[in-house]
Predict the 3D structure of the following.
Amino acid sequence: MNALFAAFRTNPMLKGAFTGFWTGILILPFAGPRTSFMVFLVVLFCVAVLAVYKKKSFSSSRCSIFSEKYRYLLSIISSDLRIKAFLYIITASAVLFPLMLTSYYLDIFIMAGIYMLLALGLNVIVGLTGQLHLGFAGSYAIGAYTYALLNTYFGLSFWLCLPVSALSASFAGILLSMPAIRLRGDYLAIVTLGFGEITRIVLNNWDSVTRGPNGISGIAAPSVAGISLSGLRRYYYLVMALVVLAVFITKRVEQSRTGRAWMAIREDEIAASSMGINTTKYKIYAFVFGSLWAGVAGQLFAAKMQFVSPESFTFIESVFILCMVILGGLGNTYGVLIGAFIIAILPEALRGIESYRMLIVGLGLVVMMIFRPQGIIGNMKKCRY
Amino acid sequence: MQILEARGVSRYFGGIKALEDVTFRIPRGTITSIIGPNGAGKTTLFNCLIGITKPSKGAVFFCGKDITTMQPHEICRLGIARTFQNIRLFKSMFVLENVVVAQHTRAEYSVMHSIFSTKKFLDTEKSITEKSLEIIEFAGLHEHAHSPSQSLSYGSQKRLEIARALATEPELLLLDEPTAGMNPSETEDIMGLIKKIQSLGITIILIEHDMKLVMNASDFIVVLDHGVKISEGRPDEVCKDPQVIEAYLGKEVVY
Amino acid sequence: MFFQQVINGLTLGCVYAIIALGYTMVYGILGLINFAHGEIYMLGAYLSIIFLGLFTVAGITSYSIVLSIFLSLLLAVIFCSAFGYTMEKTAYKPLRGSSRLSPLISAIGVSIFLQNFVMKTQGATDKVFPYKFHFASIDFLGVSLTSLQMLIICSSFLLMAGLYLFTKFSKTGRAMRATSQDALMASLVGINVDRVISVTFIIGAGLAAVAGMMIASYYGVINYYIGYIAGIKAFTAAVLGGIGSIPGAMIGGLALGLVESLGSAYISAEYKDAYAFGILIIILMIKPSGLLGRSSDQKV
C-alpha cells in the first residue's frame, strides 16, 4: 500500500494521471464530460512534465539555465545606477510613445497611468506600512465622484477640483483608519473591504445625487489656458505628468522619517512604538497619503471617461490594484509601476482568450503567493546610506 | 535623586496576579538588576514601565512625572528605551536603518521638508546617519553597518537591539535578558558594553538570569517572585536574604 | 408583519450560521480567513441544482422526489468537501508559515477562480431550482411559517448541535480543539495536524454545501456571484459571535439574519447588503473579540 502511494508521488506519469483524474472528476458536474476529459489530459501533461523537470533538476545542474538567465536579467535592472538609467529610458520612451502609438493603444496607456497612481497609493498602505487594504476602489470611487458631482452640478473646473478630490479621498482614508488603528491583519482586511463595498452600495442607491446605477455623464475634460486636454495624446501627457509627480513625492516621503516609521510599523509594531514612533498617527498618515493618490486617479478616470458609474469601482477593482502591488513587490515603488503596467495591458495580452482572463488572474494570485510572494522583481533594495 | 519610581504597581490578567503591589526607586546613574525565577513577572514589569501594558493599579513616575497612562512612544520620547527578550528587530531593514529608525524622535522635520528636500531635511538626515554610525561603532557592530539585520549572528542581533535602544537617546535603558543564550565570553563582552553605557551617564535596569553578571555589575537588585517584590538592596545584602534563598532554592526543611 | 420578518430573518440567519461555522472552524485552527469559503457554498448551490436536473432526466425524481433531493444533497456535500480538501492542499498548505498576507491573497485568488470557473461553465445567467417546496404552511396570527422555512431552521439546528457535540466529544473533535489551541504542541503529543486541518476543511465545505442547497431551494434562483456576498455576511456573523467559537458563529448568524431582515423591512431594503458591513465595522471597533470571543493580549 505504501509502495503504491510512493509510486504515485514519484512516478511522473502516475502522479500526472492521478492529479488529472482528480481535477477532472471535481469539475465534471460543472463542465461536462468533454471539457473534463480535456482538462484531465492537460493536467496530466503539465504535472508529468513538471515532475520530470523537477526530477532532472535534482540530478543535473544544467536545468537552471532559465533561472540563471532570469537572475542575470534581474542583476541588470537591480543595481542602483542601472535602475536610474533604466528609469530615464522608460521616461524618455514614455514621452515619445504617443507619437508612435495608435489612439487605441494610447487609451490603454492612459488607463495604465491611472492604475500606476492607484498602485503607488496602495503601495504606501499595504507595501510600506503593512496594512492590508481590500477596499481601495472605494477611495478611487470617492475621487471620481467628487469631480463628477462638482463638475456637473457646479461646473467647477478640473484644476479646482483636483485638490478637492484628493482631499476627499484622503478624508475617507482618515475615517477608514479609525477602526484600522485598533485592528490587525485579517480583521483590518475585512473592514477595509466593507468600506469599499459600502461606498459602492451608497453610490448605487443614493439616486437623488449620484443617479444610482445609471451613473453620471457629461463630465468635462480638463483644459490648460483655454486649450482642451480632451484629446488622447494631450490627456496622456497630463496623466504621465501626474504619475511622475506622484513617484517623485512618494519616493521622497518614503526616504524620510515618515517612510521609515511606516516600514518600522510594518516590521514590528510594538518595537516601533517602543522606539518612539506614534504608530496610530503614522498609520493614519499612511491611509491619508495613499488615498490621496486614489483620489487623483479617480478624478483622472472620471475626466477621461467623461462618465462614472458604481460599476467601475467593485471589489474586483480593488483586487486588481492589490495584484499590481503584489506583482511589483510589496513596498517596491518602481516595481509596483511595472506591476500596474502589466495588469493594465493584461486584457490585451490575453486577447482572444479574454473570457478566461479572470480565471487566469485568480490562478495567478495563488501561484504568485506560492512561488514568488516577493513580486516579479523581488527585493532589489539596497542600503541607501 | 531617583530617576524612576514605581508605586504599588499591580497588573492582573484575568484572575492571575502577574504583579502585585511592586514598589521601588531607581537612583540616577546606577545599574539595577531585576531578578527572580521564571514567571516572576519581570517582563510584565518592564511592559508596565514603558506603557505597552497598563498597570491595573499603582503608578509609575519618571523624573517625577507620572507616566502611568502614557503611550509607549510618548514614554520613549521622555527618555526611556528598552530591548526585548525575544529579539524584535526590524527584520527586512539593514543594520544602519534599524538604528536610524530609532532616531525618529530626534529628527524633527515635516513631510514638506522631505518632499522639497530642504536644507533642514538634508542636514538632519546627514547628522542622524552620522550619529547612528557612531552608535553602531559604540556597540561594536561597525563591520556590519551595511548588512541586512537578519544576517547578523544571534549575539550581534542582541547588540543591535541595544544600539537601536541607545539611538533614541534615553536617560534610562531597560535591558530584558541581554545575555540570554550567550556563552561566557560573549556575556563578558555584553557586560563591558553595559558598563560603557553606564559611563555615558545612562541609568540601566537589567533583567538577568546570569548571577555572576548580576552580582558583579549591579549597584542594586530587586527580587521578584510570583509578582511580589520579596527583597531589594545591594547585591551582598540580597544574596544573604533568606527569602531570596527560599525563592531560588526552596525552603530549608528543619526536622 | 414584525413576527413575519423575524421568521424570515431566522431562516436566513440559519443559513448564514451554517456558512459561518466553516469560517470559524478554519480560523480557529489556521488563523486564516478562508475567503473562498463563500464560493464553496455557491458551488454547493449549483451542484444541488445540477444533480437534481440529472436525476430528473434519469427518472429518479418521478419515482421519488425525496430520494432525488436527498441524493443530490449527498452528492453536493461530497463534491464540495472534495473541493474544500483540494483547495486547502493546493492553495493554503504550501503557504503555511509564510506571512499572514500571503494565504489571504491566495484565498482571494481561489475565490476569483472558482467564481469565474462557474460562470464560464454554467453561464452568467440565473439558475432556477427545478423544484418548489409547497407543502402546508402554518399560519398563526397572520404569520406564516412555510414548511421549507421550518425544514431549514430545524435541520440547521440539528447540524449545529451535531457539530457542537462532534467537536466536544469525538476523538477528532478533541484533536481539532487541541490544534486550535496550539498546533505545534498538538503535533508533539501525536496529533496529525495536517489531517486535522484537512478534516476541518472537509466538514466546513460539507456544511457550506448544505447551506447552498438550502438557499437554492429557498430563493429558487441562484447565480455565480452569490458566494461572495454570502461569504462576507457569514464571515461577519462569525466575527460578530467571536471568531473561533462555534456557538458564537451560530448566535452571530442568527443575529445578522434578524438585523438584515428587520433592517430591510423597516429602514430600507436597498441598503440590505450594507447592514452586514456596518455591523461588522461597529463590532470590530467596540469589541473586536466578538460577543462570545475571548480577548487576547499580544505577547511581548
Summary: Residues 2-61 of chain A form one domain.
